[in-house]
Amino acid sequence: MTIPQSLQQAAAKASETSALLQDPAALRQTNKPQLRRYEVSSLLPNGEIAETRHIAPALPIFEDAFCAFTRGSLVETTTGPVAVEDLLPGDEIITQEGGPQPLIWKGSTSLVPSRADAKGRTHRLTSFMADSLGLQKPTSCVVTGPSARLLRMPPDMRVSPDAPLLLTLAEEFRDGMNIFETAPPTVVDMFHLCLPEHAVINVGGLEFETYHPGPDALKLVSHAIKTLYLNLFSHVDSLAGFGPLAYGRADRMSDGSLRG
């Protein structure tokens, strides 16, 4: 007597499930969310500085808030260039839009750029050699993280000479010679900065944006993730608290075309 095909399939599935349950290594490989430690320094309304540590999923919505600048990046302040790791909430940072703004939030995390996460994503960095974008742009080598955006357009993304400048991800400028990808196999400290208003600041002679999640950042996330995310920022209770974007952002569509 032959066994019906449906029973054969059920038996095979039961066998696979049994093997999975009996294999501790297989259990460890199940799709569990990877967690990361994030450190935050915030300027409180009374002028004091609060330092907090958070554990949150290693998801883009969280990592983008911490992965713009590497240790040693020099940020232009009213007292001169200051390494990003030495900045304190309350320091006055010079903005391209006009007067200085106080630093109200600094986030940092540590990661290994060459190590893939559970979903296969890596956090490769972009190195800008001195003068790679013009005289003293940057003044010395600048290494940025995956969420850093420049107020500049690569030649292949310029629609027309008089088109407005857009904030563009640093990786779009890689040319393999003076601007290139790097992925150290060791731990790298990453930082991002938030001001009362979204702005462009000078980091190593290049114009980078300060942190802003974007108006649609929380559209598709659960209430739990939204709450966990907003807990990182003591100065806002919703996305509206970040204010408007100072400039538009340039992103490539899946077909390679430009979306502003």
Walkthrough of the structure:
The chain has 260 residues and is an alpha+beta fold. Helix content is 13%, strand content 30%. It is built from 4 helices and 18 strands. The protein has helices spanning 5-22, 24-28, 60-63, 223-230, and strands at residues 35-43, 49-57, 69-70, 74-77, 80-83, 92-93, 101-102, 105-111, 125-128, 142-144, 149-151, 167-169, 179-182, 188-194, 200-203, 206-209, 249-252, 258-259. The chain is globular.
Provide a compact summary of the structure:
The protein is of the alpha+beta class. Helices cover 13% and strands 30% of the residues.
Spatial strand arrangement across the major sheet: 2-1-8-14-3
Largest sheet: 5 strands, antiparallel
Give the overall form: globular
Radius of gyration: 22 Å
